[in-house]
């Protein structure tokens, strides 16, 4: 495996892949976003993969505006459902591997125990349905597909929950945050490291779950962000989901069981608060 294509390179995960690439100099990287490669263009994808003799594709590109997706269904479907199929078809022509990044939104969140990869999916939003369809397309057209479902992604790049809570914590005296949606934050750099581990140890096709260790609510997450940042002037108040209506339904419980990826690739995954501190150090807050 020599040539690696990373799509969605300007996003949170794509940027973290770029940062860590320096530590993995054995490969030639092709970092692309829509300007360099429109993954919704099947012909362009096929030409790019074959011309550049791609051995592995890491698809970090996605339509992630969860509420907006309820209206922008066509665009969301193209990016999240059809494009992974195009990447998979192109990968298959070269016997290449495909790592498709997916989401906890493929579940409806009615569990009370962490979700395993074998559990039935039941997405409750356009975003979740299109991401699940993308998983299916990827696996159907490329037998060397590794699907990684993740959740609550944040990093030093782009817009995300951590940056928003830091900003609002400095701007407001009070802040209401949902306390009855439970999951686990994921530092995108930790996910990027897991992807590199899979590439280097050899990709074992299948579905995997990855987030940081531990469990919290969005309320707990916010309290930790403010505590680490030393924000004491903003009072964080717990909100019920029903008090903060959104266009798209969120899973009330989406903790992911990571046993499979830890055992397959011998990973040690940090606790979410440990990784949050590392990220916030990078943000210099």
Describe the structure in your own words.
Helix content is 40%, strand content 17%. The chain has 285 residues and is an alpha/beta fold. It has one domain (3-159, 184-213, 253-271): Rossmann fold, CATH 3.40.50. Helix 1 (12-21) links the parallel strand 1 (3-7) and strand 2. The protein starts with a strand and ends with a helix. The model has no long low-confidence stretch (mean pLDDT 97).
Short descriptors:
Rossmann fold; 285 residues; six-stranded parallel beta sheet; alpha/beta; single chain; 12 strands; two-stranded parallel ribbon; 9 helices
Topology:
Blueprint: E1 3-7, H1 12-21, E2 28-31, H2 42-51, E3 56-59, H3 73-93, E4 97-103, H4 126-141, E5 145-150, E6 153-154, H5 161-171, E7 174-178, E8 182-183, E9 186-187, H6 188-201, E10 206-209, E11 216-217, H7 218-229, E12 235-239, H8 259-265, H9 272-283
Parallel strand pairs: 1-2, 1-3, 3-4, 4-5, 5-10, 6-9, 7-12
Antiparallel strand pairs: 8-11
Helix pairs in contact: 1-6, 2-3, 3-4, 5-7, 7-9
